[in-house]
Structure formats: structure tokens, C-alpha cells
Amino acid sequence: MAVNSYAPDRRAQRWAARTALAAAAxxxxxxxxxxxxxxxxxxxxxxxxxxxxAAAVWWALTxxxxxxxxxxxLAVAAxxxxxxxxxxxxxxxxxxxxxxxxVAVGAGRYALRSTRKQxxxxxxxxxAPPRRPYILMNPRSGGGKVAVFGLKEKAERLxxxxxxxxxxxxxxxxxxxxxxxxxxxxxxxxxxxxGTQALVAAVAAEHDVPFLVISAGTRNHFAMDLGLNRxxxxxxxxxxxxxxxxxxxxxxxxEHPFVNNASFGAYASVIQSPxxxxxKIGTIWDLLPDLLTRQRGAELTARAADTTLIAPQAVLVxxxxxxxxxxxxxxxxxxxxTGLLGVLGIKVDSAAEAAGLxxxxxxxxxxxxxxxxxxxxxxxxxxxxxxxxxxxxxxxxVHCRIAPGKLRVRVPRQRPxxxxxxxPLDWRQLRKLxxxxxxxxxxxxxxxxxxxxxxxx
Length: 457
Description:
The chain is an alpha+beta fold. It has 14 helices and 19 strands. Strands 1, 2, 3, 4, 5, 6, 7, 9, 10, 14 and 17 form an eleven-stranded mixed beta sheet that branches. α1 crosses α2 (37-62) and α1 packs antiparallel against α4 (93-113).
């Protein structure tokens, strides 16, 4: 007797794959068929426009004077011209093609979702409320969120000892945290930027005490990847009374901790400039030409597992890998407990290679790997590094490592959580799913004699 309790999911998966392939084909063939030979030429024009845009951006970033401004104008004009050409040539076929492509993407993701190993999220552990919590707060962080959200007052009502950092003078937050542990603190917390979070997190990990993240920084990347509420930092304090623990990894560049990433190369050099804090765009605009054309800055070499990056302009080593397959997941880590560093390297030396980054599915100039250890060396004895956005200088070579599960993070039981990223659109896998039939796609079960047999629809 047929067992079909599993079959509807398989049927839906197969038909979603077939829908995705059909819709994608329709989205591509409709403009070509509508325009005839002109449609083919139009496709060539679109690809040329994309390549020209990427090349123009490269020229704008690496040149100075009139050439830079002309390239910047071209970087805007090229995609504008392509959009205008499409709209005036294809008329009704363009929106219909876009709708068809949206259907293809949605159906494809649905079909592939069941083939992907689902993430169960980071394991939560029960945690008793702390008796002597100690929290450092930076009153200027995030444009003054400490005062805006009344963080100090709420934390003190919940029994925490709060220390407001003095913005007018340098304070060793790691030393303050160690002193708090020596005085009996059983939880360390920070309301501030990710750089400050990392310093106190390392002390918490060193002494095996829970760490509380309060999303009072400007960007709060670490808080986002922990699934915390970034819109209301005060909600993070609920972890003091109704919290659970997550055991997450902690990254190190040499002996310096980072919760997000350590950057080497162009960005690390830019943030070293004293002018960067007051004029970020102007400083980047001024320094990038020399950095990208290798007239300034160190020549890097990075080794990660079996991969060696020779002379990249930038290397990013992250505490767990960032999502790259799904555009909505860029800059976000789905997990912080994989025990792996993410490594992203960029090497582009010409406008053609810049165009390749945009058009080539696997560009030579982009390296994305994972490893437990990464060594970044240079042609000099010291190198500029950005640790969670904070500028520092370290001796070379810089050994980056990850400490798996080293940090006990206390988070509220009720929190937004980490959105799960979409699976990458693998058209080869979709073709296999679409071509499968009941017998080949169905799971197997054991009959009474212990032999495997197909579960038919």
C-alpha cells in the first residue's frame, strides 16, 4: 500500500522547481522574443552597461581630478541609460519580465529550502538572574542612546551597578572590568560600540562570567547577530531578570579580541587617519586612490587553511562567516558558534577586473573561505588593523584565531531573534529537482522483511 504522507512536500518541491525554471526562462526569453534581433542586441547592451558601470566606479575610486569626476558621472549615467533603454524599448514586456523573474526567485527558494540543512539556531541555556551585575555605559555612544532610553536608571532599578565612562578622557575599560570581577561581579555588561564590547567580552571570557550586550552603539552588528532588539536598547536589560545564555565564539587578532571582525588593508588604513572621525566620506575619497593602486599601505599576504592570498587590497577576518549567498543576508552572521573564522579577500587591479566582480559568478578577485586560523603578513614590521572598527597597529605577522564557545552571552528570553537567510539559487540543483519523478524523488522505507522499497505517490 502506498504511503503518501511525505509525498505532498515532494510534489510541491518538484513543481516549485519546475515553476522557477519556467519563470526564469520566460523572464529571459520574453525580452529577446519581443525585440527579435534587437532583443539580443539589447541584452548585449545591458551587459555592456553593467561592465561600464563597474569600470567607471573603479576609475572614480582610483583616479583624482577631472578624470575622477568624469568617471563618477559615467557611473551614474551608464545604468541610467540602460534603464531608459529598457523602458522605452520593451514597454510592457519589461515589467512582465521582472514579475516573472520575481516568481522564479520565490519559487526557486521555496524548492531549495527543504533540501537545505535547517539551522536550529544557537543553543539556549537556562540562567539564574545575576546577583551582582556590573555594567559599563558610554553616554556618547550611538548619539546618546544611554540617556535617550534611560538605560542607567533602568539598570540600577534592576540591581546593576552602573559606571558611566567619561568621554573627555581615555579609560581602560578592560581594567575596569577586571576590577569589577575582583570585587565580586557575576555579570559584566556594556552599553556602547562593538569595540568596547569586545574588550569587556574578553575579560568576561577570561574569568568565565556572563556577558551582557546592550545595543547602544551606532551600528550594533554584534547585537544584531545575537538577535537582540536594536531599536530599543532598554529591552536588552530584560536579560537581568528573564535571561538565557548563549555560548558564542570570540575572535582574536594576536592577543586582541574582536566580536565582529578584524580588517586589514584599505579600510584599516583609512580609519587610522585623524580626519576620519569628523569626515568619513572625505577621508575615504582622499585616501582610496593611493591605497587601491598600491602607492600607499602595506603589501599583504594572508594564509587561511589551504588558501593563500597574494597582495590583496583588503582582507576581512570575521568571528564566524558572513552570509554571501543571499543579498538580504550580507553583513550578517546566521550563527556565532560554528568555531570558524570567515575570510574575505579582495584583489582588483584594473577596470576589467572590477567589471568581473559584478559579472562573473566566481570572480578571481574575490576570495571567500573559512578557517580556524588565519595569518596575515606584510612587507613591514607593523601593520594597520581595524578591530571592530577601532584603529590599531599590530606587529606582523598577525595570527588570527577563534576561541569556540568561549563567551557566555546573557540575552533576554524574549527577543527578535536572527532571521534565517535564504538558500542560494542553485539552478543546477533546481534542474535536478524539476527532472525528478515519484520513484527517484521519493524517500525509502523498510518493508516487513527489512528490505528497502520506494514510497510511491
